[in-house]
Automatic annotation (TrEMBL):
GO terms for biological process: peptidoglycan metabolic process; proteolysis. It holds the Pfam family Peptidase_S13. InterPro entries: Beta-lactam/transpept-like (IPR012338), Peptidase_S13 (IPR000667). This is D-alanyl-D-alanine carboxypeptidase. The chain crosses the membrane at residues 5-25. The gene is dac. One of its GO terms (molecular function) is serine-type carboxypeptidase activity. Belongs to the peptidase S13 family. Keywords: Carboxypeptidase, Hydrolase, Membrane, Protease, Transmembrane, Transmembrane helix. It comes from Gordonia sihwensis NBRC 108236. The lineage of its organism: Bacteria, Bacillati, Actinomycetota, Actinomycetes, Mycobacteriales. It comes from the Bacteria.
Length: 448
């Protein structure tokens, strides 16, 4: 019964020291509103695996409530709803307004990740092709892979193991076809490329790009800069990258590839689980939206932003999760119109950490480690908050919203799942307050 728990509970043992340079650059936290303090250096890590004892004491609801009483009094939490559960028993140990739908921010990505892992083959890849059209025109056909990169072979890329424009260019050169121009085909996706509640200023801010079926580097103008401004014409930018790789100076056109056109080049994305991992670690909105649309296309839905959001909820419902009070207008959580109860977030996390949902197990591997990796690298400072190295979680940040959902191993060796949604206060204040609540669970024997 404890088999998976024994495998997935990875404990990062913290060692004193400062982490600087490229590692810190790659593991920056979610964007937060102006006024957030500057990032301190992250601690270095010595990874270790500590198995959970099969005889770990069982916590009680009364014990958890007692343990959380003090940190829950912090006014910086604003309005807090949340839930804590025991994945082994499925028992809810603490709940506060958990059934109330709240703005989840990027915790909505937990729904997206769970849905695609439940519905799609974990080794599935997206294939991007170039077909040969008329009059020397090569058509780059969008297949919904935002991880396709413009960085040349052998150079670092932002996303893990992506397909490369340089590989497409080499295949085209070897095809024997005389290519004189490049066109792009984005006909796979339908509907608006921006959800109506999104702020177009977030394109320049680096949070989003128009969601087209073809792009490179998630639409980033600087391919390896996580928070780089994005292009507002991602498909054309991808076409220009291919033209440049081929040494072509002609303008890039938009077209629809003719049926039966011969394929002269193709590359594949990383497997689904790798892409889900990148989405979760970097809280990548563009990748989340693309995964939602990939799910919609695979399950008979509309391949659009709204279709992706609907497919996420439909898939979770089909798999027995209570999504009745949840509302999603996107798959990333970028919209303030999204509403998700903490109970659903906790239920998904508990399912991933417990038994009976093997398809969700890789979700745990994608979660950042407190004070160690990803969007939790600069949180849970040991001097002020327990939980560093023992908490794994998905962050969520919008103006006035701070959420955190994940797992924590208690001092008694028990794994607990949790979901917390704070609203109405500054994220700069709410984040450490939420961390204190979750950190208190680390010290929780909670047997009485």
């Amino acid at each position: 019964m404890l088999r998976w728990i024994l495998i997935v509970v990875l404990v990062m043992v913290l060692v004193a020291g400062a982490g600087v340079g490229w590692w810190l650059y790659q593991n920056r936290a979610d964007p937060v509103p102006p006024g957030t303090p500057a990032r301190p250096a992250a601690a270095s890590l010595d990874p270790a695996i500590v198995p959970v004892s099969p005889n770990a004491p069982v916590p009680t609801a009364a014990g958890v409530a007692k343990q959380l009483a003090k940190p829950l009094k912090d006014p910086a939490l604003g309005k807090l709803t949340g839930q804590v559960s025991d994945p082994l028993t499925g028992k809810v140990l603490w709940s506060q307004g958990a059934d109330e739908p709240r703005v989840p921010a990027s915790n909505a990505k937990i729904l997206t990740a769970s849905a695609v892992l439940l519905a799609l083959p974990h080794d599935s890849r997206v294939s991007t092709e170039v077909v040969f059209g008329a009059n020397g025109e090569a058509i780059l056909v969008g297949a919904g892979d935002p991880t396709l990169t413009s960085t040349p072979a052998g150079e670092p890329s932002f996303y893990s193991s992506p397909g490369r424009i340089s590989d497409l260019a080499e295949q085209i050169k070897r095809s024997g076809r005389h290519v004189t121009s490049i066109a792009v085909d984005t006909s796979l996706f339908t509907g608006p490329t921006m959800q109506k509640t999104w702020d177009r200023r977030d394109i320049e801010g680096g949070d989003i790009t128009p969601i087209e079926s073809l792009m490179v580097d998630g639409g980033r103008l600087k391919p390896n800069d996580e928070y780089s401004p994005r292009t507002d014409q991602p498909a054309l930018a991808a076409g220009r990258a291919l033209a440049e790789a081929l040494g072509l100076n002609s303008p890039v056109a938009e077209t629809t590839a003719p049926s039966g056109a011969p394929v002269i080049a193709s590359v594949k994305s990383a497997p689904l689980t790798v892409r889900v991992g990148d989405m979760m670690r970097y809280s990548d909105n563009v990748l989340a939206e693309s995964l939602g649309i990939e799910l919609a296309e695979a399950t008979g839905g509309e391949p659009s932003i709204s279709g992706g959001a609907q497919a996420v909820l439909k898939t979770l419902r089909t798999n027995g999760f209570d999504v009745g009070d949840a509302t999603l207008v996107d798959s990333s959580g970028l919209s303030y119109s999204d509403r998700v109860p903490a109970s659903l977030l906790d239920e998904l996390m508990s399912a991933a950490a417990g038994n009976g949902r093997p398809k969700l197990r890789s979700l745990l591997d994608s979660l950042p480690v407190a004070h160690g990796t990803g969007t939790l690298a600069d949180r849970f400072f040991p001097a002020s908050t327990d939980g560093a190295g023992w908490v794994r979680g998905k962050t969520g940040t919008l103006t006035g919203v701070s959420s955190l959902t994940g797992t924590v191993q208690t001092v008694d060796g028990r794994v607990l799942a949790f979901a917390m949604i704070s609203g109405g206060t500054s994220p700069a204040d709410a984040r450490p307050a939420v961390d204190a609540v979750v950190g208190a669970l680390r010290d929780c024997g909670c047997r009485g």
